[in-house]
Amino acid sequence: MYTLSYVLTTYNKLPFLRQVVERLIAARQPDEEIVVCDGGSKDGTKEYLQGLFEAGKIQQFVSERDKGEAHGFNKGFLRAQGVLLKLITDDDAFCYQAIAEAKQFMLANPEVDVLTGNTGLIHLEHLETVSFYDDVAENFRRWLDKKEVVWMIGLPLLIRRESLALTGLLHTGTVQVDTEFTYRITSLNVNLAWSTAIMSVRLENPQSNFRVMNSGQKWRRASDEEADRIRYYYDKRYSSLKNVLTQRVPFDWLKKPLRPLKRALFDLLNRPQYQGNTAVATGYVATGVLDETTRLSVAFEVADRFMAAHNAANPTRFLFKTNPITKALSAT
């Protein structure tokens, strides 16, 4: 049995996949396995994975048509033999040192069902800046302190394989798979832990699910509409008439012109305001126009250096609080 299974899904992103898999293979330990589920790519991905499998560099792979990212991950989860499951996407960067620390924490604390942590964001077109998902860290705190139902980024997720009986598999009917999964598990009696390390960096690019999902000409983003549907289902606070009126009816068209007035009033009263997620310089300095292949390679290098430097300067802490075991229904 392996201690950890890296489960990676991909579809027609071979240039990105090469960057991800090369780093993953270099980081894999003897007690870990790599499971890759390809959705039937036509860009040479199958042949690439076949070669890696025959060379013993990846332990399992399948290449066949699937019904989306969640379906691919679920197939990998069911094939995996590790005590822990680590989700890996085909176009993002991961800090394997931080993942190794999280793995040891979960192995030492078998009551932890799911662990997540900090993530950065770099746009492929703007490598000079990285943003922190401060709002996601705050969401975890709200769950930890108040048991609020919240969403979190899926990139850092580690799941105890036997805990899938409690969390369930990923929902194959959603595009924002991590949003649905984290809303779901924070509404359940799941034991969650948080790593303060930067465990991953989302490399936003033209093929990112988020961009593709919102590419249609609609007055409201498809991602927002789906996120609202998920939140209203899992968060019981939205069952009251007041919240139906204030949340379910889209008032963005009314709120947008009032926001500058609100900011001006808060400034006048010296009231704190939400400033958005923190952004810092990556240290990258453009020296000319990069072709697509070079830019992609540089983007992963920038993300790797950022994660290593940040984590070296900020020792990892784990936040965790055990939930008591209860039944979903109790006798009255």
SSE topology sketch:
Layout: E1 2-10, H1 14-27, E2 32-38, H2 45-54, E3 60-63, H3 69-79, E4 82-88, E5 93-94, H4 96-108, E6 114-123, E7 126-132, H5 134-146, E8 158-160, H6 164-167, H7 177-186, E9 192-204, H8 209-213, H9 222-234, H10 241-248, H11 252-268, E10 279-281, H12 292-313, E11 318-320
Parallel strand pairs: 1-2, 1-4, 2-3, 6-9
Antiparallel strand pairs: 4-8, 5-9, 6-7, 6-8, 7-10, 9-11
Helix pairs in contact: 1-12, 7-9
Description:
This protein is an alpha/beta fold and 332 residues long. The protein contains twelve helices and eleven strands. Strands 1, 2, 3, 4, 5, 6, 7, 8, 9, 10 and 11 form an eleven-stranded mixed beta sheet that branches. A hairpin with a 2-residue loop joins β6 and β7 (126-132). The radius of gyration is 21 Å and the shape is globular.
| CA-atom Rg in angstroms | 21 Å
**Structural class based on helices, strands and sheet pairing:** alpha/beta
Low-confidence stretches: none
Strand content: 15-25%
Task: Count the DSSP helices.
Answer: 12
H-E string: EHEHEHEEHEEHEHHEHHHHEHE
Whole-number mean pLDDT? 88
The number of strands is: 11
Shape type: globular
Biggest pleated sheet: 11 strands, mixed
State the helical fraction. Answer: 40-55%
* Head-to-tail CA distance between termini: 43 Å
